[in-house]
Amino acid sequence: MFNPRPRIERVDVGGGFHAWIVDDALQDPQALRQRAVAESHRFEMAPHNAYPGLEWRMAADVASPLADFFLLHLRSALGGRRTQGMTSRLSLATLQPHELSPLQRLCHRDRFGATPGQMVAACTLYLFDDPALGGTSFFMPRRPLDAINADIRRWHTMDADAFTQEIGSPPGYLVNSNAQFELTGVVPAAFNRAVFYDGTQFHSSHITQPGLLSADPARGRLTLNGFFICRRAAA
Fold first, then answer.
1. Domain ranges for the chain
2. Where does residue 204 rank: exposed (0-12), middle (13-18), buried (19+ CB within 10 A)?
3. In sequence order, what are the beta bridge partners of 20?
């Protein structure tokens, strides 16, 4: 399923973090996209997290090859040792700016309840042709992390109007620096490109043209996402 001889490039995404870009990641990317089109009824909104669209949890026939690829080529580079948990999904960002909740208008981190001895790695594999649908952006907080976390908990309880008034910007995806976060790097999208990164770095889908989003997997922002909880390698 995955390219056995991948081309992997490490890029600086700011704040001492790096991302690893894998072009031509899948041997037959069209097959996975066609599967998403044929079984589009399996996508559903996922209220358990802040993803701004539809998701389809992947079974072992996709999750296991992704886990193996991560183990062979990326886990060590990202500072992980033994993989202790993993999940993957096909995703379609669909929400328009006025539909976003306050937390969907911010960057986020993937933590999954990891303990101090664990790390979380994440990946996004782009399965769409139009790069204007957006890649992945990375951010650093402009204030101490404890203060940012306290604000995030407070923003979670706000309605959209109150949040808009507090941050002073209209509804939309976060694609530029603001008073809370500094944009430090963007990995552009390309068909069959995967980007692996430390999930504890603040990041977001870099969606500058939300009018292009669609619930149709054949033309929407279709991605394969993976999350890996690992033991942290000794320093």
1. 7-98+109-138+181-232
2. buried
3. 10, 196
If you search the block for the tokens 């031509």, which residue do you land on?
24
Q: Which residues lie below 8 Å from residue 35, measured CB to CB, with a gap of 6+?
A: none
DSSP string, 75-86: TTTTTEEEEEEE
The pTM is what?
Answer: 0.96
CATH of 7-98+109-138+181-232, one of 3.40.50.300, 3.40.50.620, 2.60.120.620, 2.40.10.120: 2.60.120.620
Per-residue pLDDT of the chain (235 residues; tens, 9 = 90+): 999 999 999 999 999 999 999 999 999 999 999 999 999 999 999 777 789 999 999 999 999 999 999 999 999 999 999 999 999 999 999 999 999 999 999 999 998 888 889 999 999 999 999 999 999 999 999 999 999 999 999 999 999 999 999 998 999 999 999 999 999 999 999 999 999 999 999 999 999 999 999 999 999 999 999 999 999 998 6
